[in-house]
Amino acid sequence: MIFKSSTKKTLIALAVASSVMLSGCQSTASTPTEQPQSTVASVVVTAADTGTTAITLEQAMAHPDWLGRQAERAFWAADSKTVVYAQKQQGNELRDLYTQAVNSQAASQVALNKLHTLGAANAVYSADRTVQAYVFEGNVFVKNINTGAITQITHDSAKQSKPQFLTDGNLAYRQGNAFYKVNLATGLQTEIANLHLSDAPEGIAEPATYIAKEQHKLIDYIALTHKNKKDKQARKEQLNAENSSIANAQFYLGKGNELADVQLSPNGKALVAVVKESRSWREDSDIMPNYIADDAGVKAEKVRRRVADEKPITSEVIYIDLVEQKQTTLAFDTLPGFDEDVLAAVKKENFARDGKTYESQKQPRAINLMMDWGWDQSAIVWNKTGTQVAMMLEAWDNKDRWLATVDVESSKLVSQHRLHDDAWVNYAYNDFGWLNNSDTLYFLSEETGYSHIYKKPLNGKVSQLTKGQFVVSNLTLTNDDSAIYYKANVEHPGLYEIYRVDPSNGNSEQVTNLDGMTDYKLSPDQTKLLLTHSKIMAPPELYVADAKANSSAIQLTHTVSEAFLAKQLIAPKIVAVPSSHTDQPIYAKVYYPADYVEGESGKNRKAVIFNHGAGYLQNSHMGWSGYFREFMFHSLLASEGYVVMDMDYRASKGYGRDWRTAIYRQMGTPEIQDLADGVSWMAENANVDTGSVGTYGGSYGGFMTFMALFTQPDLFQSGAALRPVTDWAHYNGPYTSNILNHPDVDPIAYEKSSPIYYAEGLKNRLLINAPMVDNNVFFQDSVRLVQRLIELEKENFETAIFPVEPHGFVQPSSWLDEYRRIYKLFKETL
């Protein structure tokens, strides 16, 4: 059992005798790994049932305004005493902004004509922290933090972005592909660099052909005109070189390229730009018919290309010296493994299936900037003084990630850290940066199997700052380098608190103790944390706490409605289901029936397993779920006697690298094995009849429903697949190619993982709910599978279409129709 504080006793209790081992509790001023291993309960009692008024399907699927309108996009004001957040208006999709002092329970709505005074979540600060700069509606503003005085720097229709204070006190910003700096004392604006996605002008060309050369010899007018042009060009170049009042910072990055990212050094002396070939994100045939258009016609909506149509693309890293007016392209050949054939084994297997022999050979791999799906930072980061720059790069084949710096003298990239994964490098947990007071990098890496913090001096060795079987994310470094704040699930995979580690010695200490899901933002003066916290039965609210160990938090917002609090909802229990395929258990939420008695006998319960979507998601945690409608639906089912299970099957977030990569080249195999373990657990522990179990889910959960019904046809008596993937070759590249490589390289993985290849296995009832304007999982996915089922002469399936819905349903009427069908399916089949 976990012992942490008196408040914890109301949250986590030992519910059954069997247990699993996880990393132990975190105590003050110690590293997580210094703590002894502690037993975590197999069942975690997360909350009590709530309310007295029965929930109905109509209410559960109603517009979520009725739950209360939670604070959104919260951030600190410059004074570190006030928070700013948005709140949705009742009955429409507009948001208002509010400010609230941290010592007050009252919020004030901000008038539209004052919105520019609020600052921004990504505001930047001067070196002495007395001035804040930010962008509002495309214009740059500067605020004096002590006086509150605001100066508008730009006032035009051009869109400015990326304000940053330079080491000389000037303020720089980006406009299009040009960078400017402003002297805040004089107001003088200077163009630092203007980047052109074209080839450099060739100047006045000399005659090249025989007849052109003869023309210049024979015709004096031609020769004179040519001389005059050369003289004019030479004079212009001389004027630019000798007259400092003229902006002369034009750089040409190549015709046919697009700018992936560019970052200006804090000293204003250099830029790093990354370009790649400009390609369309789609082909002309990538369209989606929209049958319910405002003009009553059929609109051909543009959609992204499929992974099967993707082609390798690589980038160029260009270092631009703004003082010397020189640009240099940095090659990737200094990166370890830049030319390895990392897919040799996969290619060999696929060749062999076709009776061919694969001969491996080295060749440069396509390499680009790291694309982390959760980042709010750039993949290019300068140190505080602007003397060093680091960038995170990834291979197009998804097997390698490099953290590299630039050796300016030799014009080459220097690999500081290589993370290789035989499956794929995670598209999360890639935070990195420089310590403020030394040329030392800090970064996240999954190399031990869990995301942890590391540091590396520029010319030194890597050292690990956090250790243990938990996941670290969301790094924030303090100005004095005394701490890196982070979010982690140290005590339990589903419980997230805020911690901080001292980079100098690796000592960690726990900051929050709120028991649930907690996110944070450090205040500008770095004395407080703005927390967004939720529990399983409670939507997120804002809290504030001191930025110190064992801090108590004060709740700022109280937005949950009385109507929601009054609803009778069954609180799920967090269960560790033993796995028959791995040493690690499968964590799951279990909604027990309202009349369930532990150890009951003589009843045969019916059950439903819900499959959450993917991307990279965890749902069996102790915070409020994004699946709040499903949460209420599951409570309704439980109130009617069903046992409902919601599993964090293998590939779910929060459980480490091995859990994540279990589905590599075999999507739909480990997950269905986990569902089978879930059914067995319910039979043994919740009196469930294995002949009365259904399953459902959306997106990846819909895919899993197909795979379960097609590959283990006796496991579930019915299933509902919502907005489902049926053929992974038709899904997008950035997600799918990580897990299954690319279809031209690894068709075996796509055929093994796509439900359409297993459709002949359908035996029991299937409901397919398909939105028609889904630009994520295309409606075509469902259409192709339906045709396959028709050709297989299957009778026990039905399809419901939703003409106006995207991937994430919006209209309450669509939600209600969808869940009425699911509810009816289970009533009829279980």
TrEMBL record:
<dbReference type="InterPro" id="IPR050278">
    <property type="entry name" value="Serine_Prot_S9B/DPPIV"/>
</dbReference>
<feature type="domain" description="Peptidase S9 prolyl oligopeptidase catalytic">
    <location>
        <begin position="635"/>
        <end position="830"/>
    </location>
</feature>
<dbReference type="Pfam" id="PF00930">
    <property type="entry name" value="DPPIV_N"/>
</dbReference>
<keyword id="KW-0175">Coiled coil</keyword>
<feature type="coiled-coil region">
    <location>
        <begin position="222"/>
        <end position="249"/>
    </location>
</feature>
<feature type="domain" description="Dipeptidylpeptidase IV N-terminal">
    <location>
        <begin position="380"/>
        <end position="539"/>
    </location>
</feature>
<protein>
    <submittedName>
        <fullName>S9 family peptidase</fullName>
    </submittedName>
</protein>
<feature type="signal peptide">
    <location>
        <begin position="1"/>
        <end position="29"/>
    </location>
</feature>
<dbReference type="InterPro" id="IPR029058">
    <property type="entry name" value="AB_hydrolase_fold"/>
</dbReference>
<keyword id="KW-0732">Signal</keyword>
<dbReference type="InterPro" id="IPR002469">
    <property type="entry name" value="Peptidase_S9B_N"/>
</dbReference>
<dbReference type="Pfam" id="PF00326">
    <property type="entry name" value="Peptidase_S9"/>
</dbReference>
<dbReference type="InterPro" id="IPR001375">
    <property type="entry name" value="Peptidase_S9_cat"/>
</dbReference>
<dbReference type="InterPro" id="IPR011042">
    <property type="entry name" value="6-blade_b-propeller_TolB-like"/>
</dbReference>
